[in-house]
Fold Alpha/beta fold hydrolase.
Amino acid sequence: MSERSEIILADGVRLHAELSGPADAPVTVVLMHSWCLDRRIWQHQVAALGGMGRKAPRVIAYDTRGHGRSGATRLRSATLGQLGDDLAEVINQLAPSGPVILAGHSMGGMTIMEYAHRHPDDFAARVAGLLFVSTTAEGHTHTRYGLPPHLATVLRAGETIGAGLLARSGAWCPHRAVLPALRPAVRWLLFGDDCSGEALRLTLRSLGRAPLRSIGGFRASVGAQQRLDTLAALGDVPAAVLAGDRDRLTPPACARSIADALPGAELEVFPGAGHMLPLERPEEVSAALTGIVRRVVRQAKRERHEEALRMSGTAGVRQAA
């Protein structure tokens, strides 16, 4: 059973979150979704984490500002830096203690990098594991939309202009009416060789809930981010980096650069898969995430055991004195 929660951020924006798993679990997993979608893309992974028995973590899946059931964002706040600050508030309010595992899909992964960049001390103190899914640390450096370079350049220029116009169109969703006509384009852009009808329907429903301001407003920040140096400074955090070899938005080159920068990261590229790995390859993404949880839980148990031994040793010395 999941429980709904709402938190109010420092600037007054309301964030919607869904929490599941034991409240006293030794580890918390925080799931961050992609641009223009919402927390529901993680539904298979939430179910898999809930099925881990005694090792099941606490799970927090939330809608980013301007997405899903969360409140609208102001245009000046539609930035990755703001999302990194929002993540810091989510952790402080909903998971105030214990080790945390962060999992991000696309813009969600970029949010993790901003959190690490803007809150390095908190990150070092709290984060015990990472999962990067279909994301990049280099903005649009590698994005070609599956097209020849010259055509990709033209498309990016048009997309950038269009995003600027959408960003100033307000927090409304008129595009919902034309989504059925956009179905083939969404299928081609976001998915690989195989795509279930339910996965595509969920994606379209999520897109339909994203306001024009969110669709256009985050584009500049997403395209400009450069965080490989931030990743290189994180140390040996258990991490996995996943990508599909048919991803037209964040191709495998994005994942390889993340894995190269992040010490100890494990890279996996799925043949025939596109950008929507949590829905396209749910079992594989869930396996990667539960594997990280198991590693972190084992480490947490070792640390608690070592701390108990230290405390018992200290008590013994005091008694002898």
